[in-house]
Each structure stands twice: as structure tokens, then as C-alpha cells.
Amino acid sequence: MRQEAARATPQDLERSDAERSDSDRPDPSDAPVRPAPLRPRDAATLILLDRSRKRLKVLMGRRHAGLAFMGGKFVFPGGRIEPSDRQMPVAGALSQRADDALRSKLPRAPHHLGRSLALAAIRETYEETGLLIGTRDYGPPETAPEGAWQAFREAGVMPDLEALHLVARAITPPKRVRRFDTRFFAVDRKAVAMERPGIVGPDAELTELAWVDLTAARKLDLPRITRVILDDLEAAAEAGFPPYRPIPFYFERHGKGVREEI
After folding, report:
1. Which of 158, 232, 246, 259 is the most exposed place for a label (fewest CB within 10 A)?
2. Within the chain, how many helices (H) and strands (E) appear?
3. Which of 214, 257, 232 is nearest to 45 (CA)?
């Protein structure tokens, strides 16, 4: 008579599991880890306009090809807010409409957000192009934070926020190497009070600058959002930048691009 194989008891299974080697057990560290989504940083861009002729022209710069973010693309100068942007004196303020739009849809937006964004756009433009946006009518600022703003004091230039027009707002979609909540401003070329040479070059953030009309600009190697903003800019410029026009706001929701107005 054949004996039946002994059945394993629950205690046997528990003991067997305990006797497994560590290499046989699943390693919790092998489980896929989803990186936390990057929080967009407040940033600003400045579009310089040349309206001296029939065709509107804009200033665009090519980013260094070695940069991780938009390397080799043509862009408008700009970047994120820095603490010094909250401290720089100004000659003129943004319009109330622009200031309200900049804080729209931000429930806890600080009262100085619009001012800081506009100053960030002006400072970044200087750092990337050597162009100082502002006026010399009031003399040099009495004080200026350390860093790039010292160049404005030395040149006797006060940033003039009144000359800026708000064009649009856009948030970089998720899953990008960097994300920004960018506000796009425009200013006439006449607001350039001074230019410092030697900023743009083969080893700089921007390797070249070009004044191009909108048709030529659209043929450049542009980020997708820059192409969209060119359309908004053209419409706003043709209308004469009316102060109470709706401001386009671009972002992504559930994987789909959204355009709202603020």
C-alpha cells in the first residue's frame, strides 16, 4: 500500500518562508517609484518690440545648444524670480489691470507678485542680452541689491514698469526637466536706456540675438509655447495693447492643453 505524501501544515509553510534567503525575497526597493511632480517656479519673459517700421519685429535669442532646458531653441529672454527683484526701486508701476491679472487664479498671491515678475523680466533681459530697460529721467536708483541690479545703478537707469504690457501666462506641462509659471511681457525698443556689450556669445546662455519680423520668427526653431505666444502678441499689438483685453492663460489639465482667459 502506497503512503500518501504528508501535507504541509501552516506551521511548515511559515517555517519554510522564514528559512528563505534574503535574495529569494522581493526587495521593496525594486518597486517602481514615481517621482514627485515638479512645482512650477514663478518666472517672467520680456518681448522687445520694434515698431519703427511697417512690419513689427521682435528680439529673439538662441539658447546655447548645451543647455538642458530648450537647448538650441530661439526664445525671448527671461527666467525665474530672484529675491533681489522684490527690493529694486522702480520709476513707474504696472497698471492695476496687469497687476490684477498677474495675481488672478492664485488664492494666496503676495501683493508684490506683479512687481517682482516685471522686475524679473527686466533683470533677466539684462543678464542675457546686456540691454537695460528703463529710464534715466530720474537719475540713478539711490539703492540697488547686489548682483545684476548694480549695473542699473552704475548706468543711472531706473527700471520703468509702466512701459510693460502683459501679453500672456503659461505653465510648463508636467514631466518636463524644469517647470515654470511664466508671465510674458512686451515692451517697446525705445525703453532700452543702455546696452552693455559682451553679454551674448558662443559660451553664454544666449549665443546670438536677432531682430526678426513675425513671419521670420515663426520659421525659427521655437518652443511650442513661444509659437503660440507670437500669435497672442500679434493680436495684442494690432489692437494697440488695450489695457482691459483678456489675457490668455495656458496650462495642462488631465493631459490636455487648456487655454483660459484672465
Report:
1. 246
2. 6, 11
3. 232
Cell 487648456 -> residue:
258
Q: Are 165 and 187 in contact (CB under 8 A)?
A: yes
Alpha carbons 58 and 56: distance in angstroms, whole number = 7
pLDDT higher than 90, residue 154: yes
* C-alpha to C-alpha distances, 50 to 60, 97, 104, 212, 214, nearest whole angstrom: 12, 24, 29, 9, 11
CA distance 182 to 71: 18
What does the pLDDT look like over 42-87, one tens digit per residue?
A: 999 999 999 999 999 999 999 999 998 899 999 999 999 999 999 9
Q: How far apart are CA 160 and CA 38, in angstroms?
A: 33
